[in-house]
Amino acid sequence: MTNRMKRPLRRAPIRSAYRVKTVPVALSALSALLGPAVLPVAAQAAPALIWRACPSGQGPARMECTAIEVPADWSAPGKATIKLDLARLPATDPSLRLGSVLVVPDGGPGIQGVLSSAPESFTTLRWHFDVVSYNPRTSVAGRYLPPSCGVPGLPLNDPRDRAAYEAQAAGLERLVDRCRQDDTTGLADHLDSDSVARDMEEIRIALGQDRLTMLAFSYGGVPAAAYARLYPGHVRAAVFDSTPDSTVGWRGMERAQLRATEAAFKRFTTWCAGDDACALRGRNVRRLWRELIKSTGRGPVTYASARLGEIRLTDLHLKALARLVLPIPEKAPEFAGALLKASKGDFAWFGEQILGVSASWSSPGAAATRCPDGLVRLGYEALVSDRRYSERISRDFGGGVGIGLEALACSGWRHRPVNPPRPLPVGLPPVLGLGGDRDFSVTELLVSKIPGSVAVRYDGPVHVVYLRAKDTCVTGYADRYLTKLTLPSADTACARVP
């Protein structure tokens, strides 16, 4: 950062809609319209970071903390600023140290949640690198945004005509406009992945690195890809772990995603046929599923919640929840029980989950975080077209999450897009992709766009395999690449150890 005078932003309390308990979301992205961005002048200097021991009880032994100040709006760097918390696990052998690896988390819960939850995952990497991560602006926004940005969103009904779509979008737009009007910082308009990428460039400069070495997890791969687009000459290496392909958007990923969902449903039905824990054991599960989506497609089921409001459930909602839940084996008994109840007319589980997802995903603060990244197309015509496209691919699950429910969540964000899906620049170094059963197909799609790159499949339904698989095969390939820039051969896979 330069020594220009800046006005620090006052932290404001926020009632976060993100705390609504919902189904765990794999590759959750509330995304919308995008467009070309004007690049600000890159930072010319940044003060050296001063690392200190983290507060007591915060993180593992030897973890150090600091903070960096960045503009709320990179096109106006002389105005208001925000602070991003950083933490690092120092290299264990200074004589072998090659530099720093920047961990790019999934927008939250932030750095302590990454380095504290799985410090053992970085043991080998720390022979050669400081492992650094941070709370991105999307994670710290709650400190600065007004309460109106954190209010719950509206129930996301499935519009059956243009009038219903526009009425719902207008209601969501009013929430967004109130948030933007109350926000005196301007931060609500700059929570896109391009802004996050520019923060990453400031961190690179402050770390004193000529080029950045990145380890990006889940949706953190979107700002990591944005960084590669904005600063291709500053990329040394990048691992994309369980990340979506932001170069094509959700429609471009739909075929690969639906293949993964169909495979997950097959595993679910196989489990159901042989385990007494399945409430549907002995039933034809696929036939039951098709009957449910057919009936709700023809006649929506109204569900009212005293806590979250009222929703008219359709096949879109059932498919969306199936696509979120099926890849998670621990959810199988709960999902089977919900299907059994729904077959008897009780849709309470589906109603509560969809209302919870609606409140969280369409909150104005959440919309400001994801919608400017443009992974979904907006407008009633796009919704209808994308849904039909998806349903042609998969009769049972097409039209569910990204091009259905997530597109509805972003329908009220009617502002110029910032980071539209488009090709990455030529000349990037080869990268490594990692992914389990849930995410490999879309991660492979991304890394295939960069010549010489390789994706490693992990045999298991794990999201973010570097941290959660606890598998030395996975971490071994990643650590070797980050250290020596050596990639495994194509079609490399890591078998799950029982």
Automatic annotation (TrEMBL):
MF term (GO), any: hydrolase activity
Signal peptide: 1-45
InterPro entries from the UniProt entry: AB_hydrolase_1, AB_hydrolase_fold, Pept_S33_TAP-like_C
SUPFAM superfamilies cross-referenced by the UniProt entry: alpha/beta-Hydrolases (SSF53474)
Pfam short name (any one): Abhydrolase_4
Keywords: Hydrolase, Signal
Domain of life: Bacteria
Residue stretches making up the AB hydrolase-1 domain: 189-291
Domain Peptidase S33 tripeptidyl aminopeptidase-like C-terminal: 408-494
Protein name: Alpha/beta fold hydrolase
